Amino acid sequence: MFWSTTTFADAGTQQIDSVLLDVDTLTLEKLLDVTVLLEQCRQGHRRLLEYLQSPEQLHAMLDYITVEPSKDIPVSSQYKYANIVCEVLTSEISFAEKIVAGVEYEYLHKLFNFFKQKTELPLNPLLASYVCRVLNDVITRKHDQNWYSYKVNTIRVLGYIIESDTDVIELLLTHLGTTSVCDFVYKLTMDIKEQDTRNNLLEWFNKADFVQRLMSRMGMRDAEVHEGVDRLVNDYLDAFREALSPSLDRASNADPLFLALTSPKTMEVLLSAMFDHSVVCESSIKYGLNIVAALMGIPKKQQQSVVQKSWAPIYCSPQDITVDPEVHKLVASRFSSLYNILCTEPKGKIMILTYGEAQFRVGTMRLSIAKFFAQVSSLRDPTFIEEMIDNGVLRYLIVCSRHSELYSSLFVTEIR
Length: 416
Description:
416 residues, mainly alpha, two-stranded antiparallel sheet, 61% helix, elongated
């Protein structure tokens, strides 16, 4: 019996070689249609990588993930090549090295310029996920990547962010409502393993008022952005509280990003963004109060962060985290504003019940405020207790619980 000695890998190599050798009909799209393309990229097929990493093909592939597909293409096929290109660009270390090595940051510019497109409209979430995945791959060290290659990649990305004519921070913060962008901002500021490079990046971010500009986004009329800011800040604080650095002693100063987050200036900017408007935004109050509570050392209940905290921060344990007394004063000064919102009944139709009508309307914003006051009272800070008593907060919440049969259990739960 005759047994073929040709393995599956050899068959895949031959299939790719047959496409590459047919120069007259060779196109990027024809190559992307080959089913064994990703496998051959991961195996380091030399001729295949040389072709895909040529400047012309790299630009063409980046166009697939940064440019909206034509509406003339059937919906089922519009993102076919974009998906394959994203897999190809993240399949092999050499692609990340080529992207950062472009002349005058040409490839990085094309990726970051994606966030500049249509700044007044939401980003295409699918293309944004592809772009952010490629950028995450560039700044993340792979297990088989040597340290020098990784350091060069991170330095080039840092160089582009600092030297770019475009305000990269503003572009990223504008689209925090897109989950993939929020994840990329976290990884950019926290996942860089080379400590000197990360310190340089954070120093520049602090000079650019990154944290204050992040908090000012709570003044936007966009619930998705508010949720993104809340998630990002809580992920930052969770990382600082949970992770320890084995290489640094406990006497080291706190991380500069943590210091910026917990400073009175940051709290002042956040509170101004939430309250200094003629009409307050419900989502801004809801998510903003979550951030205020977290910055005062109250962990967000039942919060499960989806971001992997793989970085090594400067030591900061829960016992060492202290809140500036000025922060407490700033928060207490806004209790009167919260009380006024609490006293304002939300607009909307009266809820029809099986036994009648619910005349007393609570609303999400009032419930969030009740929850916040309950969290603040758990701190047992005399300043907070006095302000709550002076403003009649507790008295009003108890009265509300008595007048609302439907929502009394919710109020009582939060007040407890």
